[in-house]
Amino acid sequence: MPSLGRGYAEAGLAGTDAYPSAVDLRGKTVLLSGASTGLGPHIARRLHQAGAKFVLSARNRDALEKLAAELGGADVVAADLSKPGEPERLAAEAGAVDVLVSNAGIPATGRLASFKIEEIDRAIAVNLRAGIVLAAKLLPGMLERKSGHMVFMASIAGKLPAGGESMYNATKFGIRGFGLALREELWGTGVGVSVISPTFVSEAGMWAVTGLKPHPIAGEVSPAQVADAVWRAITRNRREIDVVPIQLRTVLKLQALTPGVFATTARWMGATRSNEALDRRQRDKR
Ligand SMILES: NC(=O)c1ccc[n+]([C@@H]2O[C@H](COP(=O)([O-])OP(=O)(O)OC[C@H]3O[C@@H](n4cnc5c(N)ncnc54)[C@H](OP(=O)(O)O)[C@@H]3O)[C@@H](O)[C@H]2O)c1
Predict the structure, then answer these.
(1) How confident is the model at residue 268 (pLDDT cuts 50, 70, 90)?
(2) Pocket of ligand 1 (CB under 6 A)
(3) Cα 101 to middle of ligand 1, angstroms
(4) Under CATH, what is the fold of the domain 6-285?
(5) Terminus of the chain with fewer CB atoms < 10 Å: N or C?
(6) 5 against 202, higher pLDDT
(7) pLDDT tier at 250, thresholds 50, 70, 90
(8) For residue 191, what are the contacts with CB-CB under 8 A and spacing of at least 6?
(9) 30 and 54 in contact (C-beta within 8 Å)?
(10) Residue 208 C-alpha to ligand 1 middle, in angstroms?
(11) What integer best gives the mean pLDDT of the chain?
């Protein structure tokens, strides 16, 4: 048996179902990373409707201040999560946080051979390490209060590997695995964990700005659907929500049963080439 951490044992919580993990957002403080553009503002507005208060974070302070004003006031902490020490500083400056929504991410698409080592490091730092460090730093306070929730923004790229996406797949499989395992680790402590796995999102965000059209099987969902999933995950303590159209839901089930057949089919359908086309439009964000 692996040993349980000190905090859990001291709180007398190990292995129990002592505290419910669903969070009523009224008056609760949400730390939202990636709040400046794309899906972040949609998530903020949805959680605001449910009564949440915010610490908003990203690099673009002007965009954060504008969103804060729209929400009737919010704390803003600008941070570059690719830089050492920045996730730790963000967690410290955020103060007592009831809910973490770790949403910041960069599109690390493209063949591995086209990546500079600093681009590999940046993808891991922003998409994977930052969420883990924020969780580690915010967890003691949540455990002490016996209440809290953490949401990790993954992707269907955390479930479906494809050529031309090895780095993005690595970070999204990683954050998804981390979130799902952490949920089990924290069961019974009052701290819930959820993972959100959307397909391509229309209207706003890193996919929408490319102007590309998705394969009909992958389909598209709206930012409102993603934001609603985040709200549901927190208020109903959901393990994982796939924000996907019905046809992709079926493919995900088949892929889980026959991963080899899925990989061959995706290769045959030209997934690697599609990802190269996507990379050409996203390269500036690496
Ligand atoms: N859009 C989609 O189709 C889709 C689908 C599945 C999953 N996702 C995931 O959803 C999340 C949000 O994506 P999005 O579509 O909203 O992307 P986006 O429009 O590119 O926004 C990304 C957000 O992350 C922040 N960010 C980027 N680099 C950062 C850094 N070094 N330090 C701190 N913050 C940084 C950006 O703010 P600043 O530039 O101001 O720093 C921005 O707020 C990501 O985790 C993404 O992987 C997106």
Answers:
(1) confident
(2) 34-40, 58-60, 79-82, 103-106, 126, 153, 155, 198, 200-201, 205-207
(3) 12
(4) Rossmann fold (3.40.50)
(5) N
(6) 202
(7) very high
(8) 21, 139, 142, 143, 146, 147, 148, 149, 150
(9) yes
(10) 12
(11) 92
Indicate the domain borders of the chain. Answer: 6-285
Q: Whose CA is nearest to atom 7 of ligand 1?
A: 155
How far is the C-alpha of 53 from the C-alpha of 17, rounded, in Å? 28
Asked if 168 is an active-site residue, the reply is: yes
pLDDT digits (tens, 9 = 90+) for 104-156: 999 999 999 999 999 999 999 999 999 999 999 999 999 999 999 999 999 99
How far, in whole angstroms, is CA 152 from its chain's centroid? 3
- Name the band, by pLDDT with cuts 50, 70 and 90, for residue 273: confident
Show Cβ contacts of residue 256 under 8 Å, excluding neighbours closer than 6 positions. none
Q: Which of 53, 54, 63, 168 is catalytic?
A: 168
Q: Check residue 277 and give its pLDDT.
A: 86
Q: Fill in the amino acid letter for 34.
A: G
What's the 104 CA to ligand 1 centre distance in angstroms? Answer: 4
Q: Are 193 and 152 in contact (CB under 8 A)?
A: yes
CA atoms of 99 and 53, how far apart (whole Å): 10
